[in-house]
Amino acid sequence: MANDPNWRLPDVPSFLLSSPDFTDGGALPTSARSGIMGAGGHDRSPALNWEGAPEGTKSYAVTLYDPDAPTGSGFWHWAVYNIPASVTGLAANAGDPDAALLPPGAVTLPMEARMERFIGAAPPPGHGEHRYVFTLTALDVPSLELDPGSTPAVLGFNLLGHILGRAQLVGTTETP
User: Fold this and answer.
1) What would the pLDDT profile of 26-40 be if each residue is shown by its tens digit?
2) In a designed cystine with 150, which of 63, 64, 103, 146 is the match (CB 3.0 to 4.6 A)?
């Protein structure tokens, strides 16, 4: 796959990540497009559900990454960590801090636009289809200690050595 977001990441067991709002490889709903960045949406994170996490899972991290953004490094749309192992899903709009839908203890990092929230899909006009890769990582530790201003890439680096499994779900969107 071009711009593989898993390139050079450790091979680990997979488990199931799904959403009632879109199918794997299918188009993201309009609500998951960005209003903040002018793409006609509502910056509403889709509901996510998971099952089959590896034994020994003590917490999760979820990220949303666009490997097709014309930046040379992709674009991080969302990063949350310290999700308790007892959680098996996130409600729609959990990425809005004002909605207070994340489980206690979960921490949202600032994404590329430096906001601590989910920001929806916003491919540049005429840039074609973009993939939005939701990744749920099962970890062997109950929590990670990161500087609150850390980037999603720093989170990814700190996940190394703690990953028990990975679940992914890809949504797409296209501009005319």
Assistant:
1) 999 999 999 999 999
2) 146
Which of the four pLDDT bands, split at 50, 70 and 90, describes residue 2? confident
Tokens standing for residue 76 = 């991080």
Residue 1 counted as domain residue: no
Q: What CATH number does residue 106 fall under?
A: 3.90.280.10
In single-letter form, the type of residue at position 85 comes to A
Does residue 121 fall inside a structural domain? Answer: yes
The answer to whether the CB of 118 falls within 8 A of the CB of 95 is yes
Q: Which DSSP symbol is given to 121?
A: B
Domain count, the chain: 1
- CA distance to 17, 113, 132, 157, 161, per residue, from 146 (Å): 25, 19, 25, 11, 15
Name the pTM for this structure.
Answer: 0.97
Query: What residue numbers bound the domain in which 26 lies?
Result: 16-169
Cβ-Cβ contacts under 8 Å for 24 (sequence gap 6 or more): 18, 169, 170
Q: What is the phi/psi pair of residue 31, to 5°?
A: -60, -25
Evaluate whether residue 108 is within a structural domain.
yes
- For residue 155, the SS3 value is helix
